Amino acid sequence: MKIAPSILSADFADLATGVAAVEAAGADRLHIDVMDGHFVPNLTFGPDTVRALRPRTSLPLEVHLMADDPDRWIAGFADAGTDILLVHQEATAHLYGTLQTIAAHHVQAGVVLNPGTPLNTLDEVLPLVDQVLIMTVNPGFGGQHFLPAMTAKVAALAKTRTARGLNFAIEVDGGINDQTIGDVTAAGADIAVAGSYIFGGDPAQRLAKLEGRA
Ligand SMILES: O=C(CO)[C@@H](O)[C@H](O)COP(=O)(O)O
Ligand SMILES: [Co+2]
């Protein structure tokens, strides 16, 4: 299991220190939650945050774009140094085209599903994506409780991946801690995002504990 610390729970006034701590602790990538105040009721980072972090770490930068009309932002995040760009199925009327545009910018493309959105809405785009992110909370805020019903969704997606001979990575996001990571690992998730759990204590100890339970 790869672990992607979410900087949503880091100290916004000292992001570089938080990033250095999780990198030293062996994180696999950095998860950057971009919120536009429309798609979700919160405001966070923009492309300039990615641009500022890029020279501060060698970790891959993964942007979780919680924004309406994501096409507006693709070029900006690509140019800023994003390695993986994840867009919500619910945020665009033209998902197939949006994913093609991300790939055309030489950025890995991923799609995200809210808890209430069925897996079959991705049937046509699965061959296009490098990654599928299953939200295990409603998006917008860190520190929420994991939704246990999402474990079956992860398992169903893993089954579909095998049946169709595809090789996208499966990621989970929301409420991941030492109590919840075991179930999603068993269900077939490859990458777990964790924010409040990692930054709510000593990041190195918390990361090691997650890896031990995964
Ligand atoms: O995308 C989101 C929230 O919308 C997440 O990436 C959170 O940042 C995860 O936080 P925790 O649930 O791990 O505290
Ligand atoms: Co996220």
TrEMBL record:
PROSITE patterns assigned to the protein according to its UniProt record, in alphabetical order: RIBUL_P_3_EPIMER_1 (PS01085), RIBUL_P_3_EPIMER_2 (PS01086)
Active site: 33, 173
Residues annotated for substrate binding in this entry: 6, 64, 140-143, 173-175, 195-196
Needed co-factor(s): Fe(2+); Mn(2+); Co(2+); Zn(2+)
InterPro entries in the record: Aldolase_TIM, Ribul_P_3_epim, Ribul_P_3_epim-like, RibuloseP-bd_barrel
Reactions it catalyzes: D-ribulose 5-phosphate = D-xylulose 5-phosphate
PANTHER family: RIBULOSE-5-PHOSPHATE-3-EPIMERASE (PTHR11749)
Family, similarity comment: Belongs to the ribulose-phosphate 3-epimerase family.
Function: Catalyzes the reversible epimerization of D-ribulose 5-phosphate to D-xylulose 5-phosphate.
Xref: NCBIfam families: PRK05581.1-4 (NF004076), rpe (TIGR01163)
Protein name: Ribulose-phosphate 3-epimerase
Lineage per the UniProt record: Bacteria, Bacillati, Bacillota, Bacilli, Lactobacillales
